[in-house]
Amino acid sequence: MRSFMCFVAAIAMTTGIAFAEYPEKPIDVLVPFGGGSGPDASFRMLQPDLEEILGQPMVVRNVGGAGGTVGAAQFAGHAKDGYKLGFMPVGTTTTQPHLRKVPYSDKSFAPICMTIQDPMAVGVSPDSGLNRLDDLINKAKAGTVTSGGPPPGSLPHIGQAALAAAYGVKFKYVPHKGGHGAAKSILGGKVDVLVDPLGSTLNYGLKPLAVLNGERLPAAPDVPTIDELGGKPLRYSIWFGLFAPAGTLEPILDKLGQACEAATKTERYKRTVKKSGRTPRFMNRAEFTAFFAQQYKDNAALLEVVGLKK
After folding, report:
1. pLDDT below 70 — which residues of the chain?
2. Which of 56, 150, 171, 283 is such that its CA lies 20 to 30 A from the CA of 22?
3. By CB neighbour count within 10 A (0-12 exposed, 13-18 middle, 19+ buried), where does 298 fall?
4. Residue 70, class by beta-carbon neighbours within 10 Å (0-12 exposed, 13-18 middle, 19+ buried)?
């Protein structure tokens, strides 16, 4: 027994990590998009409770650019000591690696937990005169519909392409720095539609015509699903999750996973998420790890279907 304990102590000394005391200092959390973005807002809802549970501040570092790949590339090379985490979305982690040359893949990250999964909505300006999804499709058939969103390869880009393909029309995609920029263009009459998470659509002041989901959502119970409107059963959502660099030690990942689960169960977190209009969905380490691996494969195939994969 004594030799075993000495072995464990030796490992701790070698790695510079004392499992029992982790964390002993503030934790940096890289968000690969700017302040106020979906990933940033979603982590900041979780942050106060995580800090209380872990007993350390969590310092957010926003590194935007190239659909989140600039920040994700930096994060993938971070130390595996539990003090460098990333809060990242589906597009950055599961679609961008299939679209461009990036120094990371699904093997670069260790999933810790998923906290939000927001079904996409089809949003237009309240002043557009478009009141039903059919109005948008008929406009595309008669002329040109412009859609906006983050850079190509993002889920809003894929979602609008899939929506147009499902109805046999085409939208002209106008890339923006993010959904917020696209929403400004829509409200200013420069772009027609944004396919983005329902929570963001509502926060931007857009009018949702439909949700790309199998059932209506509590945040907008009057908005029909695409199934109800007779369309193809499209299922698109944007999720956000907490990651560590691959190779981070299991005891640290376990502690972070447990803390994440506890944080999502607090009344404060539940109230904050509900107020934001986002859709909470927690996955623990095991569930999120399996889900993430499958998403990486599925989204590669999806890009081929909508003609975006190189």
Report:
1. 1-20, 309-310
2. 283
3. exposed
4. middle
